[in-house]
Write a structure and sequence with these properties.
With about 260 residues, the chain is mainly beta. It has 2 domains: about 90 residues, OB fold (Dihydrolipoamide Acetyltransferase, E2P); about 150 residues, Nucleic acid-binding proteins (OB fold (Dihydrolipoamide Acetyltransferase, E2P)). Helices cover about 10% and strands about 40% of the residues. The strands form 2 sheets. Strands 1-2-3-5-4 form a 5-stranded mixed β-barrel. Strands 6-7-8-10-9 form a 5-stranded mixed beta barrel. The longest helix has 19 residues. The N and C termini lie far apart (about 85 Å).
């Protein structure tokens, strides 16, 4: 009788073991618990258990106090066993890596370095999620704060035929899709190294705070600092959906950043 009970039990354990290893994108939990949800803009601390370098990121499987999870950070010489902290995280669900030909059910994008300047957490995708639902000009981002009016004094526009004030860009965004435009503004928020880009929020004293048109989100490989006056030149994108509820009604993508005084 004992042998009859042991054999079925061993079969059940074998099936469970095979099921746990079926998906490489869902890490096994060393603690037996699912990884706790991380607040957007928060931090994750853990030990590297696996690393997959895919420029400009390195994907890492981390063992944290809340369980194992995947994160993607800017390229760095990480090795298995290294303790790291990922700052300004943003959750992406069902994220598809075209290079790896792999879908991550849940992965957190972030930076190995903390935010400089005002130290405010990432807007959205990391990036910026300062686009609340219920305003006519901005797409919904669940749980995202509205843009804060930094009370920037009105600035003169950048020079050139494709220069606009931020309010003008919001008003004409559909007509300017795909075009390169220049904006002079003050950096009111800066979030580096998220999804391989630096995320900059500009205000120039134009726009309507109640409609969310006072703020412009910019992506760039250049750096900036909160309080800088800069001129950015980039490509106009609208209705950008990065997944996980992070959507942008207006985005200035791939911009160059120069001193604007």
């Amino acid at each position: 009788m004992l042998l009859r009970l042991v054999v079925p039990a061993m079969l059940v354990l074998s099936v469970i073991a095979c099921t746990d290893g079926a998906s490489s994108d869902t890490p096994k939990r060393s603690s037996g618990r699912a990884a706790a949800a991380i607040v957007p803009g928060g931090t994750i601390t853990g030990t590297v258990r696996e690393r997959i370098p895919v420029g400009p990121y390195v994907y890492v499987r981390l063992d944290t106090d809340g369980g194992e999870l995947w994160a993607a950070v800017n390229e760095a010489p990480l090795t298995v066993g290294d303790p790291i902290t990922v700052h300004n995280v943003m959750l992406m669900e069902q994220f598809q890596s075209q290079t790896l030909k792999r879908t991550f059910a849940r992965i957190y994008f972030g930076s190995l370095q903390p935010v400089t300047g005002a130290g405010q957490p990432a807007d959205g995708a990391a990036p910026s999620v300062s686009q609340p639902s219920g305003t006519p000009d901005m797409a919904a981002s669940p749980g995202a704060p509205a843009p804060i009016d930094a009370m920037v004094s009105p600035l003169a526009k950048a020079s050139g035929p494709n220069a606009f004030a931020i309010a003008e860009l919001w008003a004409r965004k559909e007509q300017l899709v795909g075009q390169a435009v220049s904006i002079r503004g003050v950096v009111v928020k800066y979030n580096p190294g998220v999804m391989g880009k630096n995320w900059i929020h500009l205000q120039d004293g134009s726009g309507d705070a109640t409609r969310g048109t006072i703020d412009l989100t910019v992506t760039s490989q250049n750096t900036a600092a909160v309080g800088d006056t800069v001129v950015v030149t980039g490509t106009v994108r609208i209705n950008q959906d990065l997944g996980a509820g992070y959507r942008y009604a207006l985005l200035l993508d791939g911009a160059t950043v120069k001193a604007g005084r």
